[in-house]
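Methods — Computational structure assignment.
A single polypeptide chain was analysed. Its primary sequence is given first, followed by the predicted tertiary structure written as structure tokens.
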Amino acid sequence: MLVSTDQITEALWETISMVGFSLLFSTLIGFPLGILLVVTRKGHLLENAPFFNVLNGIINVFRSVPFIILMVAIIPVTRFIVGTSIGTAAAIVPLVFYAGPYIARLIENSLLEVDKGVVEAAEAMGATPGQIIFRFLVPEALSSLVLALTIATVGLIGASAMAGAVGGGGLGDLAITYGYQRFDTTTMYITVGILIIMVQGLQSTGNLLSKKIRRS
């Protein structure tokens, strides 16, 4: 095997860092956007058709661009933010641009699953829009929101591996540099195996947590 255990450990840590920070920043962006997509749509709390149509269109544009293309297209933005377009820190920027709108859609779908009767009951009690959103809508959708963020995390793991194709670091970079370019099939299998374990572990944890919330 051409790579050492230290190299694999370092690549794993880079992947965890990329996914962790990307998930944090993209959730901070996507969560409020998802809420806005729900409350500003026709017939909802803060109905605003022009705002909804513009926001909906922008999110659709970003979601339409494949990650590998988006990563190259926003290189000037990445360089402006982190000072370089190569490495783990640089990969986080396109990952956030990719996952933010995706999370917004997932949050939107989760909140739309909540029975309209919950909102109507909250309105009847005189709750403000803010109270309805954070004391009724979000808590009712919590189980679904956990699954949504689990799906987003799994998607980020896959995207972080693709970032390795352009020097983003992490397990994807290790698989490309050693597994593909140097024909080291052992390294390829190891990196793929680690990614599979990560995805399975995250998905199982998310499913379990969602079930516990639903039953509580």
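Note: Residues 148 and 209 are 12 Å apart (CA to CA).
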